[in-house]
Amino acid sequence: MKQECMRVRTWLYDHAWPYWAAHGVDRVHGGFVEYLDLAGRDGGAPFKRVRAQARQLYCFSQAALLGLPGAREISDNCWQFFDRHARRGDGGWARRMDRTGVIIDPTSDAYDLAFVLLAHAWRYRLTRDPVLIESAAGVITTLNSDLKAPGGLGWLADAGTSGPRQQNPHMHIMEAALEMLDASGDARFAALAHQVADLFLHHIIDRKTGVLREFFTADWKPLDSAEGHIIEPGHMLEWVWILVRAHRLLGLATLDDVQRLYAFATCHGTDAHTGLIYDQIRSTGAPLSRDSRLWPQTEALKAHIAMMETFGLDTSPQISVTVDNLFRHYLDHAPLGTWIDHRRFDGSPKVDKIPSTSLYHLQLAFTELLRAQSTPGYDTVAV
């Protein structure tokens, strides 16, 4: 897989990071721009989502650790903007700001808080500032004070909602908790990861079928509606990688579930002709949407790597197909260093912008491949 490693390294180091450093940083107001237009210019979004700022902080903090010139300054300056403007007066975190940093939606959102926690993990890796550990612990406090679900099973998607329970924010809380634990060794983040793992192991995964649903009732039963049968194979593959990390960092007995998720997602969620991962399938395995966003392909890459490293499976053919698909369908037809974020089943683009948030998916998958293959010049200490 040397060729795939050099291909992704060149794209990430020589094109994506420099491009987003030049075009994705708001050098007038601070922070990062929300999206680019399809020509690769600032799309002029009048808002900044907290999740987008947090994801980009991860990207440039890791890039700084991996030696990108100027990345440390970007991470430092954008953290100052983030910490000053996105943090509410009560210590919690807002959902959305205007372009200048004025909060326009102060709502606590579980998905956003997960990425706030992830940003803390990578800023701590970069700076080793102990203040960040306590700030990250404050994210747990906000989760529990603003979003703890009645009955104590997990968290609400956002403050004030009584809608269905959602697995997706819990998945990212687990991911971020493991990152904070790995970075800091602090037991509070191990406890948070254990909370999510217990919910996953006892309520979220259906062990009879290997299915992982998106939406649940208040007591984490499958919804008796069309929404309750939505399966996103990209999320199943994302859980594969996260559960392998949980096994390594926490000693959790998750490997049987890893195999179930991987088998179902790759069997039913993959286009047999292209190897692309579908957006959605039904709980029966039948396709629901054959369109394909970019991010499920990156999650497939991470899952293939995890299966190779954990079980000794030869997933190198799947890795090669996935890397080729990412370039062929998403990266090669966009301004160099950017992407087409969504494609229809017929191959036509399904987008009108280039969202900054997708760099997180690409970067994490590509650095995982480089770590796994020990590409010369890659600092494995950083991940």
From TrEMBL:
Q: Which Pfam families match?
A: GlcNAc_2-epim
Describe the family membership recorded for this protein in Swiss-Prot or TrEMBL.
Belongs to the N-acylglucosamine 2-epimerase family.
- What GO biological process terms are annotated to this protein in UniProt? carbohydrate metabolic process
Q: What is this protein called?
A: Mannose-6-phosphate isomerase
Q: Which domain of life does the protein's organism represent?
A: Bacteria
GO: which molecular function terms? isomerase activity
Q: Report whether Oxidoreductase shows up as a keyword of the record.
A: no
Q: Which organism is it from?
A: Komagataeibacter rhaeticus
Which InterPro entries does this entry report, sorted A to Z? Answer: 6-hairpin_glycosidase_sf, 6hp_glycosidase-like_sf, AGE/CE
